[in-house]
Design goal:
By secondary structure, this protein is of the alpha/beta class. It contains seven helices and 19 strands. This is Ligase-associated DNA damage response exonuclease. It is an enzyme of class 3 (hydrolase).
């Protein structure tokens, strides 16, 4: 009799679906890749065939020019791979197009989450709890220290600073895929209707989101503005541009950073952030543990993050778990 789950094998460069000779989020080019979402530590060009949601394929086309050999799979759609393996793409709530992948073979169900969050996000479809035998979860914020506050309270800090210092602008560093669009959309939902100004590197991804029906309101380029136009305004840029020469053209900017890592004060100080905004597109500690309890798998496999603490939580709660040793997964500027 074959060992349980022997058909799916964690290897250093990705998760190998052995009967189908396919890989989940491989760190190097492979003949057949199933991709959970468009962030660079999960999505790469050069695969023979790339299977992902239509939104993720659009993001990969924008970033890596991957037009050939793609197969779009809608949420809830099941496809049959070689070797009798079935794959279903399920919303992960991380960024536009992000998916969990449910694999079914030989009566066993495995869910690979990629990255996910449980909070409401107007820019992407919400996470769906999917029962399974093996649940492969990220652990980016897998420490009890990380409990993300409500986003409305964090974004209210921007309003408060603009009201207190109207001659300055607030310059928000935000990851170019997912975080920037979420910050903009949430500000709109809170009633902020002024133009939001973009660093040039943010424009194409924001336009892509708009093309998929995400309402980001009036977006304008800083390059097209006079300096005085930016007083009392919100400007969004990549995190790397916060201390760049580019920012010197702005009117005495209040430097802000939208990231789950802003919970750690030393990180904010190291980056010279005046206004840390604890905003994450990953599940926090409570959401990670609650999700495991809701999914209730026979086993949990833990990857790319603070694996030790989450592994210990499983042990204390008499749950079977193991840590995976995958390479190529990096901390995003989350």
């Amino acid at each position: 009799m074959a060992a349980a789950f022997s058909w799916i094998r964690p290897e250093p460069h990705g998760i190998h679906i052995v009967p189908a000779d396919a890989w989940i989020d491989p760190a190097r080019p492979v003949p057949r890749a199933l991709v959970t979402h468009g962030h660079a530590d999960h999505a790469r060009g050069g695969h023979g065939q790339t299977i992902a949601t239509p939104e993720t394929l659009a993001i990969m086309d924008l970033r890596y020019n991957t037009r050939e050999g793609t197969q779009p799979v809608a949420y809830g759609e099941t496809i049959r791979l070689a070797g009798g393996v079935e794959a279903t793409f399920i919303p992960a709530g991380h960024v536009l197009g992000s998916a969990q992948i449910l694999l079914e073979h030989a009566g066993e169900r495995v869910v690979i989450t990629g990255d996910y969050k449980r909070r409401h996000d107007p820019t992407c479809v919400a996470f769906e709890v999917t029962p399974c035998d093996v649940f492969i979860t990220e652990a980016t914020f897998g420490l009890p220290l990380f409990r993300h506050p409500p986003i409305t309270g964090e974004l209210a800090k921007i309003h408060q600073r603009l009201a207190a210092e109207p001659d300055r602008c607030v310059l928000v560093g935000a990851y170019a895929l997912g975080k920037a669009q979420r910050v903009i959309a949430e500000l709109r939902d809170m009633g902020y209707h002024d133009p939001i100004w973009l660093h040039g590197a943010m424009e194409r991804m924001c336009r892509l989101y708009q093309g998929w029906g995400v309402d980001l309101g009036d977006l304008r380029l800083v390059a097209d503005a006079k300096k005085d136009e930016l007083r009392g305004q919100v400007v969004v840029c990549p995190p790397g541009a916060l201390g760049d020469r580019w920012s010197r053209r702005l009117p005495d900017p209040v430097t802000a950073m939208a990231s789950g890592w802003m919970r750690v004060r030393q990180r904010a100080r190291q980056r010279g952030v005046e206004l840390p905004l604890v905003i994450s597109d990953h599940a926090d500690w409570d959401e990670l543990t609650a999700t495991v309890q809701e999914v209730n798998p026979a086993e949990t496999w833990i990857t790319h993050g603070r694996e030790e603490a989450l592994l210990r939580w499983h042990q204390l709660n008499q749950r079977k778990a193991r840590a995976l040793a995958l390479v190529g997964y990096e901390d995003e500027d989350d």
